[in-house]
What we know:
Ubiquitin-like (UB roll); 10% strand; mainly alpha; 286 residues; Four Helix Bundle (Hemerythrin (Met), subunit A)
Amino acid sequence: xxxxxxxxxxxxxxxxxxxxxxxxxxxxxxxxxxxxxxxxxxxxxxxxxxxxxxxxxxxxxxxxxxxxxxxxxxxxxxxxxxxxxxxxxxxxxxxxxxxxxxxxxxxxxxxxxxxxxxxxxxxxxxxxxxxxxxxxxxxxxxxxxxxxxxxxxxxxxxxxxxxxxxxxxxxxxxxxxxxxxxxxxxxxxxxxxxxxxxxxxxxxxxxxxxxxxxxxxxxxxxxxxxxxxxxxxxxxxxxxxxxxxxxxxxxxxxxxxxxxxxxxxxxxxxxxxxxxxxxxxxxxxx
Length: 286
């Protein structure tokens, strides 16, 4: 903790010095100029003095140089671009539908990313990139796009999900842009620590939202649909069902088995989200 505090203090002092160094350069330049004009015998302005003055003039701007271009490649990700991508992600999340049944704890993947960010921000960005792709592929499969022999690119999957309305257009764009920043950081482009943390915050929030979308999609979208006869419908409505549940007591969890009619199923599942027990099997009694 003390080492971290010293590091932060040193960094703050360095930033303060860089911020006000131009005043010193301005005063020194003025004094040298006066000495040169009036040819003072006590102060000698020669080539060495001029070179040192140029170095001093350049130093305050060294910290402001954030991009080095070589062959058209930018060596650092522009903070303005990061701000635009993060703002875009935040806006898409703000427009997402409210989910009152969201889990009280954060997903394990999000916790892992945040833990990595404490020691290595680039590795955390790599983990974020992997988790976003994994979630999108699972959602893509659940939406019925797993028939192709050749795996699709991320852009193709996002377009498919947007076309199915499984993923809001603005969120798809935000995910694509966050992953793009992650890719560039992974492949060697520098990114400021504060920018990396903002991308991680925006990306993990998107990750949680994709998890929620996938969960809702699996609960509301059937895997298959078949036409049944009227006789089969009437038999199903008049049948009796065996429902098996588990109650997750801390010391002695219980398995419970119920037998109920179709009307009983309606009543049981009407307040299902409020129950401590959860259903593990529903089968028709022949």
